[in-house]
Amino acid sequence: ITVSGDNAVRVFKVSGGPVTLDGLTIAHGSADNGNGAGIYNSGVLTLTNSTVCSNVATGNGSGGGMYNYRASPTLTNGTFRENRAYAGGALDNGGGGGGSSPRPADAPFP
Questions:
Q1: Cα dihedral sign for 110, 106, 93, 40?
Q2: Which of 47, 39, 43, 31 has the alpha carbon at shortest distance from 85?
Q3: What b-and-e string marks burial along 57-87, b requiring 16 or more CB atoms within 10 Å of the CB?
Q4: CA contacts within 13 A on the Cβ side of 28
Q5: pLDDT band at residue 110, thresholds of 50, 70 and 90?
Q6: Cis peptide bond N-terminal to 108, omega within 30
Q7: DSSP string, 54-82
Q8: Is the distance from CB of 48 to CB of 104 less than 8 angstroms?
């Protein structure tokens, strides 16, 4: 299943949870001068068997594929490809203080 932002909007915003996204292609998201075009995560997220591709955070945006704000998602058996941003094309983390620590398990970042 492909979930698309049609190059116009962010695809997913996770702010609670727990949330599990499994077996998805998350594509063509856009964050205009913002972070996380594919996924903006500030919650409890597990991303499994999924592809995050062709998402763009424009301007000074970070994390074209995924941006984690004080969140530590679990990433399993996934692929990040062809995502773009000023910082962290595939994935970027922020939030100071509590910070973010993604837990990749078999999640390549080509």
A1: positive
A2: 31
A3: beeebbbbbbbbbebebbbbebbbebbbbbe
A4: 7
A5: very low
A6: no
A7: S-EE-TT-B-SSEEEES---EEES-EEES
A8: no
